[in-house]
């Protein structure tokens, strides 16, 4: 019996085995390098901690600086869900109603539109949320007691109508905003026959989304409509519905002010703006339709008949600096409209017509504006009486008595507007004065029929100032007559002012005003000194943004002015293709910021005076307390470098001072896992819905609700709130921002900051600043005049600092003029810190890739930026030669700001003065090491086996097989 010969190992097989093992080894090395480089991001994504706190005796630390209100998860979730529903309920705005609302209890209704089954819950990118667990409209209507046409719903959900869904761009801006409403040809006979059994009312849901990295389409599509105009299919839908049903209710599940001129064409009985829903906001829709909740929201944007009529639209989009070769420095944007954003334009031009300063043929308010800023109706009526203004040294107190004169309970909003005088001196100096500007507001409680409440609105005298960049170079209170007027909206308030001046409808007014709701203040002589210094810090206020003004490079440029509306009307600057002067090309380059007189800071040293300090010992210490210097002296250069450079979605632990690491997440509508994984908190209706409540107390409660999730999830840093301006109706991220008005945006966001910081949230208010469009936001050179910058775009951020002591900001990705915002010293230090008194940390926006090289570390540090939103541990690393005394001094200052902000946050919970931070290896790293070991052993074993077989074959005199 012969023995079976062992199978010979062929040469190709042996080579393949060696190659495979080498490739696996290489892969392991690369994988481990990447895992080490992005270790913080991986830990955040997997929601695994890298540290724990223990006391000196080994017990877990118990210092509880910011205790949670809700320790039971189910109880907390129920409360947070209720907050989301109440935000929606308070923000839903009744735009028009012929008496059909509220609907009769138990009404059998047919709900139309593909948005009825696929509504807008949030936006894309940072503002997105998981809608899989969200309350939908069907549940909302059922809870309200309505019977919804099941055949029609099935048609949209899974029948032929399911083939039609809106589309939105992704986070990178790829894709398009498209409505894709169901065409009438898709409706079957069975569907149309079902209407008869559910004919008490038709509810039509129209939706428009928004998102990060892309603006809305302003160019008409093949059907001739922009994204904010009705599509042909939507018109066909309205035609069909208004023909079939007697009572038609329109729900605007929209993020931006869509054109509503079609309400004059179709017999729609009632229109509600409901905004986007978040996870639980849709529940409020049924409550409002049934009358359980009386709508009390008010618009935060002007609804023009022509959405393209806003002067900002002339300069919104993608425009090239054709001769620039600077990395991310070849696109520009000019805010040619100056201060005339939103209602500031429409109302001011209207007043000029009434005053006789503008040709009525050039502007007709009645055909220009359909619903003004601040407009909002109710199921009840309110009477206002007893308007009174008390003048104090620092503020005016405006009082109005509001009486519910209707039949159902409801809430009302009292809005107060200020008019400054627009004089020949202003025209000469180039100081623009809008006809009215929001100066304050107050929302009543829920008033029963016949009940009244006297509301008080405090208006700071400081609002009488205007920035004069060309003359005084600071804030000035001009001579002339000032008016404080209460109104139901901006237009109503202006009509009251005009009535006080003696004008009537005979002069072209759209309605008679009521002079009894105005108060006149006369300033005899211009005041150039009072507000030439900061009321917060005493710092002198001077021009800081001359380099952001396009006139630095084009002295002949003219911004929009009410002195000559037609002659200064904006056009697209340089027709969208600018051959820029050499000075701009030079300014676009990263600047040399080395300070030759800088002194290298002390590092790695324990103070003789204070002894060894820990971060917990400085909890509650003022920013300028001497102990901070002693603490910072203990930090090493390597620790400062890593703390500043690697701050993307987490900040580093600093062992020498026992500063804890933090986890930071995006999500201005709620802490979100969309971008970096981990756990999510509650997803709320977006900022535009919150602002539409005009309810500061609710905004503060929302901030505190964010804080509850912050504590529960261990996410100390929150990339929010977001407070840029609705500069144009077509800006893609308007839903994430509050309003077209800076004061409303500032009051709401300051209230949110108050609430969030009360729970120890480290807020990073964004996007600071002039990030008011998404197109080309990475490196976009944004130009604006200093008056507009200060009085419109910086106002919300200033209010967050001065009114709420915000301890964090996020720099925008665009440039201010030629300089990246984070490297603009006038913004980051002179205005933010010196004028406003900011004491905290400024983080960049995304800085994790080489594409963001213009967000230069040295330039940013020198200007006042502290932390790079960077997840790559190797990125932004400077050479030893570059770590000069100047850079180290800037890193020291940045480390101070970061440490101060962290010690004021709930990241300190559990860390007492006698506690220690202990590094913890997260489970994913143990798993990685185990995988390394197993794969390593397998590879070694494979190599050994193959090698031994080859050696044995050689010893036996047999060459390896070749095939």
Give structural notes.
It is a single chain. The chain is of the alpha/beta class. The protein folds into four domains: 11-50 and 923-955; 93-296, 3-Layer(aba) Sandwich (Rossmann fold); 338-552, Immunoglobulins (Immunoglobulin-like), CATH 2.60.40.10; 573-587 and 627-919, Glycoside hydrolase, family 3, N-terminal domain (TIM Barrel). Helices cover 29% and strands 16% of the residues. It has 24 helices and 33 strands. The strands form ten sheets. A six-stranded mixed β-sheet has the order 2-7-6-5-3-4, sandwiched between helices. A hairpin with a 2-residue loop joins strand 29 (815-816) and strand 30 (819-820). Helix 9 runs parallel beside helix 12 (490-500) and helix 18 (742-757) packs parallel to helix 20. The longest helix is centred in the last third of the chain and has 33 residues, at 923-955. The two termini are 28 Å apart. The relative contact order is 0.13. The model has no long low-confidence stretch (mean pLDDT 94). Pfam families: Fn3-like, Glyco_hydro_3, Glyco_hydro_3_C. InterPro entries: Cellulose_deg_GH3, Fn3-like, GH, Glyco_hydro_3_C, Glyco_hydro_3_C_sf, Glyco_hydro_3_N, Glyco_hydro_3_N_sf, Ig-like_fold.
Indicate the topology.
Layout: H1 11-37, H2 39-46, E1 51-55, H3 73-91, E2 93-97, E3 108-112, H4 137-143, E4 147-148, H5 150-157, H6 189-194, E5 201-208, H7 232-244, E6 248-254, E7 270-273, H8 283-290, E8 303-304, E9 320-321, E10 332-334, H9 343-355, H10 365-368, E11 369-371, E12 382-391, E13 395-404, E14 413-419, H11 424-429, E15 437-443, E16 452-460, E17 466-468, E18 474-476, E19 480-487, H12 490-500, E20 518-523, E21 577-578, H13 582-588, H14 626-633, H15 637-645, E22 650-651, E23 662-666, H16 687-692, H17 696-713, E24 717-719, H18 742-757, E25 762-763, E26 765-768, E27 781-783, H19 786-793, H20 795-804, E28 808-811, E29 815-816, E30 819-820, H21 825-835, E31 841-846, H22 857-863, E32 867-869, H23 885-903, E33 915-919, H24 923-955
Parallel strand pairs: 3-4, 3-5, 5-6, 6-7, 9-21, 10-27, 23-24, 24-25, 26-28, 27-29, 28-31, 31-32
Antiparallel strand pairs: 1-33, 2-7, 8-11, 12-13, 13-16, 14-15, 14-19, 17-18, 19-20, 22-23, 29-30
Helix pairs in contact: 1-24, 3-8, 3-17, 4-8, 9-12, 15-23, 17-18, 18-20
């Amino acid at each position: 019996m012969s023995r079976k010969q062992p199978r010979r190992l062929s040469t190709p097989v042996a080579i393949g085995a060696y190659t495979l093992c080498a490739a696996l080894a290489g892969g392991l090395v690369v994988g481990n390098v990447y895992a080490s480089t992005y270790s913080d991001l991986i830990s955040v994504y997997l929601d695994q901690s890298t540290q724990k706190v223990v006391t000196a005796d080994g017990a877990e630390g118990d210092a509880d600086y910011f205790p949670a209100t809700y320790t039971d998860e189910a109880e907390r979730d129920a409360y947070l869900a209720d907050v989301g529903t109440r935000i929606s309920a308070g923000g839903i705005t009744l735009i028009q109603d012929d008496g059909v609302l509220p609907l009769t209890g138990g009404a059998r209704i047919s709900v139309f539109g593909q948005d009825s089954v696929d509504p807008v819950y949030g936006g894309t990118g940072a503002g997105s949320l998981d809608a899989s667990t969200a309350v939908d409209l069907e549940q909302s209507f059922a809870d309200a007691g309505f019977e919804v046409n099941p055949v029609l719903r099935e048609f949209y959900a899974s029948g032929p109508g399911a083939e039609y869904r809106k589309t939105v761009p992704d986070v990178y801006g790829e894709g398009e905003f498209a409505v894709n409403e169901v065409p009438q040809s898709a409706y079957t006979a069975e569907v149309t026959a079902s209407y008869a059994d559910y004919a008490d009312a038709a509810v039509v849901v129209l939706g428009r989304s928004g998102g990060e990295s892309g603006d809305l389409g302003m160019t008409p599509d093949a059907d001739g409509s922009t994204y904010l105009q009705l599509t042909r299919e939507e018109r066909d839908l309205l035609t069909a519905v208004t023909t079939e049903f007697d009572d038609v209710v329109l729900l605007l599940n929209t993020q931006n002010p869509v054109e509503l001129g079609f309400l004059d064409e179709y017999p729609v009985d009632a229109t509600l703006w409901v905004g986007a829903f978040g996870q639980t906001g849709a529940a409020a829709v049924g409550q409002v339709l049934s009358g359980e909740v009386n709508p009390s929201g008010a618009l935060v944007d002007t609804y023009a008949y022509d959405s393209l009529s806003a002067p900002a639209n002339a300069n919104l989009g993608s425009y090239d600096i054709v001769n620039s070769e600077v990395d991310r420095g070849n696109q520009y944007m000019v805010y040619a409209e100056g201060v005339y954003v939103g209602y500031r334009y429409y109302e001011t031009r209207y007043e000029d017509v009434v005053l006789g300063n503008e040709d009525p043929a050039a502007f007709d308010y009645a055909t220009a504006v359909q619903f003004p800023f601040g407009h909002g109706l109710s199921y009840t009526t309110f009477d206002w009486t007893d308007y009174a203004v008390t003048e104090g040294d620092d503020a005016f107190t405006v009082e109005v008595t509001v009486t519910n004169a209707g039949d159902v309970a409801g809430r009302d909003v009292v809005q107060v507007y200020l008019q400054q005088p627009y004089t020949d001196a202003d025209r000469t100096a180039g100081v623009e004065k809008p006809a009215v500007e929001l100066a304050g507001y107050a929302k009543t409680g829920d008033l029963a029929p016949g009940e009244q409440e006297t509301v008080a609105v405090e208006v700071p005298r400081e609002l009488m100032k205007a920035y004069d960049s060309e003359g005084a170079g600071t804030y000035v209170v001009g001579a002339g007559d000032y008016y404080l007027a209460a109104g139901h909206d901006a237009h109503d308030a202006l009509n009251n002012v005009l009535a006080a001046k003696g004008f009537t409808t005979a002069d072209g007014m759209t309605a008679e005003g009521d002079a009894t709701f105005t108060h006149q203040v006369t300033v005899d002589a211009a005041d150039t000194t009072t507000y030439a210094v900061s009321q917060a810090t005493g710092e002198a206020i001077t021009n800081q943004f001359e380099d952001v003004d396009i006139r630095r490079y084009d002295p002949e440029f003219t911004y929009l002015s009410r002195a000559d509306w037609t002659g200064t009307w904006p056009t697209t600057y340089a027709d969208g293709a600018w051959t820029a002067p050499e000075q701009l090309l030079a300014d676009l380059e990263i600047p040399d910021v080395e300070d030759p007189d800088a002194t290298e800071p002390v590092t790695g040293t324990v103070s003789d005076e204070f002894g060894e300090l820990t971060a917990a010992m400085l909890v509650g210490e003022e920013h300028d307390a001497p102990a901070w210097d002693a603490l910072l002296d203990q930090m090493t250069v390597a620790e400062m470098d890593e703390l500043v450079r690697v701050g993307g979605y987490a900040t580093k632990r600093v062992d020498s001072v026992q500063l804890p690491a933090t986890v930071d997440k995006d999500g201005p509508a709620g802490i979100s896992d969309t971008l970096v994984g981990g756990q999510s908190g509650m997803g709320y209706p977006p900022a535009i819905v919150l602002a539409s409540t005009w309810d500061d107390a609710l905004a503060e409660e929302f901030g505190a609700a964010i804080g509850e999730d912050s504590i529960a999830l261990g996410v100390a840093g929150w990339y929010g709130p977001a407070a840029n301006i609705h500069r144009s109706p077509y800006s893609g991220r308007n839903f994430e921002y509050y309003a077209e008005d800076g004061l409303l945006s500032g009051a709401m966001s300051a209230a949110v900051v108050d609430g969030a910081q009360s729970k120890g949230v480290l807020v990073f208010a964004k996007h600071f600043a002039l990030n008011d469009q998404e197109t080309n936001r990475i490196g976009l050179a944004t130009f604006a005049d200093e008056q507009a910058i200060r009085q419109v775009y910086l106002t919300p951020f200033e209010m967050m600092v001065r009114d709420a002591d915000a301890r964090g900001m996020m720099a925008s990705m665009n440039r201010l003029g030629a300089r990246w915002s984070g490297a603009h010293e006038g913004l980051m230090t002179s205005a933010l810190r010196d004028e406003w008194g900011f004491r905290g940390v400024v983080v960049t926006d995304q800085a994790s890739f080489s594409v963001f090289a213009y967000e230069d570390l040295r330039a940013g540090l020198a200007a006042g930026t502290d932390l790079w939103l960077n997840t790559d541990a190797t990125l932004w690393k400077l050479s030893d030669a570059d770590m000069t005394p100047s850079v180290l001094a800037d890193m020291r200052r940045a480390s101070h700001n970061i440490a101060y902000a962290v010690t004021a946050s709930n990241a300190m919970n559990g860390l007492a003065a006698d506690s220690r931070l202990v590094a913890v290896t997260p489970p994913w790293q143990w798993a990685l090491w185990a995988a390394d070991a197993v794969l390593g052993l397998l590879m070694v074993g494979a190599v050994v086996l193959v090698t031994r077989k080859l050696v044995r074959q050689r010893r036996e005199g047999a060459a390896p097989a070749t095939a």
